[in-house]
Amino acid sequence: MCLTAHWIDEGWNLNKRILIFCQVSNHKGETIGQAIDSCLLEWGIDKILTVTVDNASSNNLTIKYLKRVTIG
User: Fold this and answer.
1) Which are the contacts of 15, defined by CB distance < 8 A and separation ≥ 6?
2) C or N: which end of the chain has fewer Cβ atoms within 10 Å?
3) Element holding 31 (H helix, E strand)
4) Number of domains observed in the structure of the chain
5) Structural domain boundaries enclosing 10
6) Spatial separation of the C-alpha atoms in residues 66 and 52, rounded to whole Å
7) Angle 19-56-17 from CA coordinates, rounded to 5°
8) Average pLDDT, stretch 16-43?
9) What pLDDT score was predicted for residue 72?
10) What's the CA gap between 12 and 55, in Å, rounded?
11) In Å, what is the CA distance from 38 to each residue of 14, 33, 55?
């Protein structure tokens, strides 16, 4: 899995960084969601505006997991 962040800084410059490039143990939505959540916490990121994913069916569960842990 590759997780990247894109943001616009105070000078209106587009920034992007690869936060993590790692192997996940399986392709279950909850497993992927936990990996993403762990990485975001490690980087101190507590707000997400947009998530872009491919068309894998597990992505629906990943997004549900992230909503549950970030929104409550």
Assistant:
1) 6, 7, 8, 9
2) C
3) helix 29-43
4) 1
5) 2-71
6) 13
7) 15
8) 93
9) 61
10) 31
11) 25, 8, 23
Rounded to an integer, the average pLDDT of 34-61 is 89
Q: How far apart are CA 46 and CA 62, in angstroms?
A: 17
**Residue owning tokens 């929104």:** 71
Q: What CA–CA distance (Å, rounded) separates 59 from 65?
A: 10
Residue type, 40: L
Indicate the SS3 state at residue 19: strand
Query: Tokens 């993590």 sit at which residue?
Result: 20
Asked if residue 56 has pLDDT above 90, the reply is no
Q: Is 57 helix (H, G, I), strand (E, B) or coil?
A: coil
pLDDT value at 52 more than 80: yes
The whole-angstrom separation of Cα 62 and Cα 13 is 30
